[in-house]
User: What shape does this take?
Amino acid sequence: MAQVRWAEDGVRQTARWHSENGTPAPARVIVIDDATGANTALRLAQPDTVLLWRGDFENAKHLLKAMDRRLQKRESRTASARDTELGALFHTHRAERAARAELLGKIVIALESDYTIRLRRAPDVRDACAHAYGPALTGDSPGTTLVSLSELIGVIGAYQWHRTGIHVEALGARITPAYGVFTPTRDEYLDLVMEAPFPDSAPHPVVFDIGTGTGVLAALIGRRGARAVLATDINPRAVHCAAENMRKLGVAELVSVVEADLWPTDPKLRADVVVCNPPWLPGTPTSDLELGIYDPASEVLHRFLDGLANRLTPGGEGWLILSDLAEILGLRSREEFLSRIAEAGLEVVGTHETAPRHSRASDTSDPLHAARSRERTLLWRLAPRSPR
Ligand SMILES: C[S@@+](CC[C@H](N)C(=O)[O-])C[C@H]1O[C@@H](n2cnc3c(N)ncnc32)[C@H](O)[C@@H]1O
Assistant: This one.
């Protein structure tokens, strides 16, 4: 783990550096406290510099909110005259959010080796940090670790979700999400998986769930009468989370979960149904969580399509769940998608479609509202193309 060095009241200090999104360790640390206002913090937040908070914990959260408000105001001032084209709007919006997150990430907190925070009104984050980071961030020797306050707030929020769980109507049960794992907060696509018919050749199919996340689809399909489900994910946090969910839902005998890049490692394994809800938007992920959202140049989607025919039993089907948001934004075209299906030796044997029910679809303050309000989610039933 990288080290950070600075002087404070004439005393040399060192700490470890931790960043979930791979932000490199800063070269410079400036100590700030309750006397520091948002404008000063934004001025001090230079490249390679972090601002170490030594004041009241709640005040640090207020400072972060005040900085965020100022940055958002600047964004809306520059937004007015530009980007009526949706694709450009999406890229600008994502870049602005990333730039804002980078600046806000400069407010850092010292976490002790037992995950306590020695600040006034600091919450007890020991369990939340152990959930996100593992039993200790510190390796063999004790010491302080600097983490950004915004990351820590994300860790605390994720732990609250983890403790409460989310009720999944289609499952009639709660799923337990985890830090860094895609959480099925929008659930319309679960209904599509419930209504798609199993192939005639396999009324009790063997199923692969590719990119299982919390394992929600694996559990749903298991409950629908699958004979066995093999779920994969490239994110070790997802593998652990899904395996725990299968145990809690009592389907661990039916569903096994393994870490893999798309396909189960044994190339001989075949499934009657392969379900996949891949990341929906072409783009580069910047964290474990974004692995569930962004797919660089649709590479995961293309590899899924290219590999599918070889992984199906005769009569088997692939169920690919995709929103058309990328198409509406001009990041991928329907023609391009359909020709990739044909090039992979597949054909579409059916589609199931739904409109999103999540709150962002009707949020008119969202810069992408025009696109989100038109969005549809589809389940594409794909099969190897029959010989003509
Ligand atoms: C949109 S999320 C879907 C999660 C879950 N199936 C659901 O419907 O809630 C996509 C998932 O694919 C996983 N993923 C991304 N790239 C992958 C790859 N190359 N191989 C396996 N899983 C991958 C992500 O980690 C994430 O859990």
Observations:
- Residues 182, 184, 211-214, 216-217, 232-235, 238, 261-262, 277-279, 291-292, 300 surround S-adenosylmethionine (CB under 6 Å).
